[in-house]
Design brief:
Layout: H1 8-13, H2 17-29, E1 37-43, H3 47-55, E2 62-66
Parallel strand pairs: 1-2
Length: 69
Amino acid sequence: MQASTSSPADADRARPGGEILREAATLADAGALRPRLDPRRFTLDTVMDAHALVAGATSDGKVVVDLDG
């Protein structure tokens, strides 16, 4: 049997998922959550460039591929 090495931070991470989701929804409804998006936009013609950006871990947030462009 292993000794417990949990900390108060571990207890916060162990909160039930539903509670975390409700808190996130409240923050989103209040406009307090905004996705961090990479300023570059890609199309299906340039999707390999988008993939290279993500694979190289050099994006500045989420990468957007525009399917209508």
